[in-house]
Amino acid sequence: MAADSIWHYQFRIIMLGDSTVGKSSLLKRYAEGVFQESMSQTVGVDFYVHFLEIKPGLHIKLQFWDTAGQERFRSVTRSYYRNSAGAVLMFDLTNRASFESIKKWHQEVMETVKPYHVVFVLVGHKSDLKDECKVEQKEAEKLASSLGAKYIETSAKTSQNVEEAFQILTLAIYEALESGKMRPNEQWDGIKCKLPPEAQLKIQEERRQKKCSC
Fold first, then answer.
1. I want to staple 67 with a disulfide (CB 3.0 to 4.6 A). Which of 39, 77, 192, 199 is the partner?
2. Is 177 helix (H, G, I), strand (E, B) or coil?
3. Distance, CA of 46 to CA of 30 (rounded, Å)
């Protein structure tokens, strides 16, 4: 689906992690279906868009903010945290230091987004380089659990789990929307809704019925 007008919800997602962990290559593989062996470092913030049908007839526009990992751009990238519905916390499986930086990235977001809710997914990238891996899966899963996130390992080079990583995050955002943890707001751009008013009322009624049946 290429037409920008055909979507019901727009979710803004921010890509976070140290420089050279592969944020841009993962996004390029997902959004454009290509892998570039060598990509120039992101300066400030780049933007990508992808469309996804998460259930029959329900189309989501994913708007990605691909942020620079270098410290000198941090003041620029921080300004994008608040208007994000989801965040990909990403590290390089062959780079131990990038894994140890994840808590810092998570903390920065949490300190900035209040009172809004952000959904996280932890991504260990470059899974094709198994012989060079410096982070065990169980250790990464433990960190993800402590951050209230799911963990998945990906490779932009081989396409392993690329679709799955963003599917996990998109569904988690939608579940937060359905449960009432997140909702469209005129003062917040993390989620935008194009559903007609009657459809929105139907969803709200379904939410109320779910709460009553608990």
1. 77
2. helix
3. 15
Q: What is the chain's percent helix, strand, coil content, to nearest 5?
A: 40, 25, 35
Nearest alpha-carbon partner for 119 in 147, 153, 161, 155: 147
The predicted structure's pLDDT at residue 146: 97
Phi, psi angle pair for 156, to nearest 5°? -70, -30
> Are 188 and 116 within 8 A, CB to CB?
yes
* pLDDT range class, residue 6, cuts 50, 70, 90: confident
Query: From CA 63, how far away is CA 202, in angstroms rounded?
Result: 26
CA 186 from chain centre, in angstroms, equals: 21
What digits encode the pLDDT tens for the residues 155-209? 999 999 999 999 999 999 999 998 888 888 888 899 999 876 555 555 555 555 6
CATH numbers and ranges of domains, the chain: 9-212 (3.40.50.300)
- Give 99-102's long-range contacts (Cβ < 8 A, gap of 24+): 99/124, 99/134, 99/135, 99/140, 99/143, 101/17, 101/18, 102/17, 102/143, 102/147
Interval 123-166: pLDDT, tens: 999 999 999 999 999 999 999 999 999 999 999 999 999 999 99
One-letter identity of residue 32: E
Burial level of 187, CB count in 10 A (0-12/13-18/19+)? exposed
pLDDT attached to residue 122:
98
